[in-house]
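quick one
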Amino acid sequence: MATPDYYNMLGISRKATPDDIKKAYRRLALRWHPDRNPGDDTAEQHFKDITAAYACLSDGEERTRYDRLGPLYQPDGRPPRPEELNEVLGTVWGNLWGRRKKARGEDLRYTVSLPLEDVATGCERSIRIPRQVRCKTCGGDGAQPGNGRVTCDVCEGSGRAKGVRLFRSDCYHCEGRGYRIVHRCEPCNGAGIRSIDDAVVVKVPAGVATGQKLKLTGKGNEPGDPGPAGDLFVVINVEEHTLFRRRGEDVLVEMPLTFSEMALGADISVPTLEGVTTIRVPAGTAPGRVFRLSNRGLPAVGRTARGDLHLEAVLTVPSDLTPAQREALAAWADTLSDASHPQRQSFDRHVQERR
Ligand SMILES: [Zn+2]
Ligand SMILES: [Zn+2]
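structure w/ zinc ion:
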């Protein structure tokens, strides 16, 4: 861990005399002492931090070492490790002269499941999403309106650290705000934000696929501090369908047909994404034949042209024939010559040649 800016913590300049250091510590220790702030974790942390800062800066030798090493200073006197050097160079150094960044609320994610039928047409979904919004009572700063905040006496309201700013430019005691909160806003208990269940309408365009994200700008969490809200990302999940399988913009349906339907031909009611239609299966249809209904598939997002619906003929064979049915079927088969099944005839011929 990089050592933080002890001068900033005590709210003093780098030229402070031992007496200035003692006075600053005494004043801040009174303010942040745990006995005076029971149950306040922030106050407890501040108290620990200023005490560590005082322990270093009030010792002439340690102070000299701290002034020389800056963020690489270690209270136990050991030399800094390589990863500590990296951290200091990468983060502290990078933020050295940086201003306080504007807070931005977090992005949120929400998954919407929809059937393939809704993908074909596009749809609207009302969702309830738990999100955080800025408290209306305090406007987000967490202070009770009127008497909730006082000017920070360490930075005198500037929000900036005193003296040469080696580490960070924000005042440690007010985090750069320039004021401190002395009375918390009641509705949000000082958080500046409140949790609500927000009703959001999501417009899902036709043609979406599983894993695609829709971005709803500004519908994520709002930060308490001034700054923009995050975004809401709605993740699409297209449900598995019992009938339809998706192949890009085309949709595939297996169409089970009986042997007599395939041999004799039949009008078959088939499902489409919109409902039902009838197709004519011609006599002599072989299993695996695909009937294509053009423009009955899915559109690509932002397009109106649609893919096709593919109906694949699948032979369904009965497995529970009665003795009478078996006899009838065998009798019928006997009436056929080999030429009735030319594919089988050719197959048998090839087998014969291999003997
Ligand atoms: Zn509030
Ligand atoms: Zn301050």
